[in-house]
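Q: Hi! Curious about what AhpD family alkylhydroperoxidase looks like structurally. Here's the sequence.
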Amino acid sequence: MSTFQVHTLDSAPEQSRPVLQQLQQTFGFIPNIAGAMAESPVLIGAFINLFQKVHSGTFSEAQIQTLLLTNAVTNACSWAVAFHTALALNEGLTPADVEAIRAGRAPADRQHAALSTLAKTAIEKRGHLGDQDVSAFLEAGFRRDQVLELLAVTAASTITNYVGSITQPPLETQFQVHAWHA
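A: Let's find out. The predicted structure is below.
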């Protein structure tokens, strides 16, 4: 059982409140993981800046969700797997591709498979990617700069995944259908 509070706008430290307000506008609610993250204004402030950069980069939202779901599975963060399952499905990933990622396999879609494989490999190898790892990604139609951009997505999801593992926020009712356990 976690001893970390899931903050609301009323209970969060003053410096965390603007970020919570921004996330509430983005999602229509404050994700419990953000409420837990709000305990540290430094962390949630760094997270939101990275979150904004990631979502304004060169990857489509479907590609970002492929990465975020892969990272959540690879880092074994149950909360993030359920959350990003819902978002991936909303962004048009097929149920079969989402289930493949949730099971630790590459999706059928060629580009999503390349994204998922490189993200998983980067985490498992702690960034020590080989030429073959990068070449397979490039052969799927991606660019060299996107290899590095993928690291920004991984950094954002690592923050979320680790916060989820440490604070263990409850899973929101709307994501219960996508509950997952390592």
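A: A fun detail: DSSP finds nine helices and no strands in the chain.
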